[in-house]
Amino acid sequence: MISKGCEQCAKGGKMVLFVYGYCDQRDCFYCPLGENRKNVTDVYANERQVESDEDVIEEAKRMSALGTSITGGEPQEAMAKTTRYLELLKDEFGEDHHTHLYTGITGGRENMRRLSEAGLDEIRFHPPLEMWGDMHGTEWEEILHIAREEGLTPAFEIPGIRAEPEFLEFLDEGAAEFCNINEFEMSDGNYRRMQEEGFELQEDHMSAVEGSKDDAILEEMASHEKVYFCTSVFKDAAQHRNRLKRMAKNIRREFDEVTDDGTLVYGKAFADADRFEALGVPEEFYTVKSDHVEVAWWLLEEMVEDGDLDRGEIVEQYPTVDGTVVERTPVA
Asked: Keyword Lyase on this protein (predicted)?
């Protein structure tokens, strides 16, 4: 089963809103957060560090967001920011802007009510690993019913560490609406601690953990109609790439080429703007910067080949707010 939030994510239409990186009650050895996100009181909308409410709206518009996924840490102070952003997004984009929250704490009824009133649609709980198999009769069972009573869709989202039938029991009992299992992954933030726990990378894979797709997880859990197994390959090949494509389509200039990976390609020439005007290059094929001119990459190649320009380079970069460059290819 794929939830509405996951459908939007697969289309690259889900903005990721990271609100703080502190977890007061948890210290999971598999936490993937890197140094710039762990134990910080910062907010990020995708790759953009948020300095004002307008940054959140601008980033959502940059990618034509269909919805927002909220994640991060767990301090109570983050609740005020989270509810404000929820209200902001609903006011700007309307009720069709689907929002879901990923959390590692139960929160209680008052927090469920505040989130629901602010516009949250769906809440995905991530119980601590030591509780798996022993959650019935605890606050983790109770919060599923409370969340539903307060108008939220309750669900689970867990890493694929091992098969755990109790999650399926909650689904069959109607307490949880669905369960997402993320392929177990290593990152720069958790690599050392993961190895200390005995986990290793899959051979020829950048992030997936050995055994994270084992038969027990796939057969016991992923075959359930209300369970979805999200692979690391899918996250990169579909979710991330499609999000980049949405951004690139929105911000591309007349002469930018959008690649299949969602990056932008253009030419960079180190010449005076007067040179382009003298050669009769149409204005829509170039733009003047402070110390260079950006131009259609194919036109740059032609101009260098014809001797109209001495040199230049072809630039490939992400359409994100930081414009990270992927590759530079000299043309001479």
From this structure: no
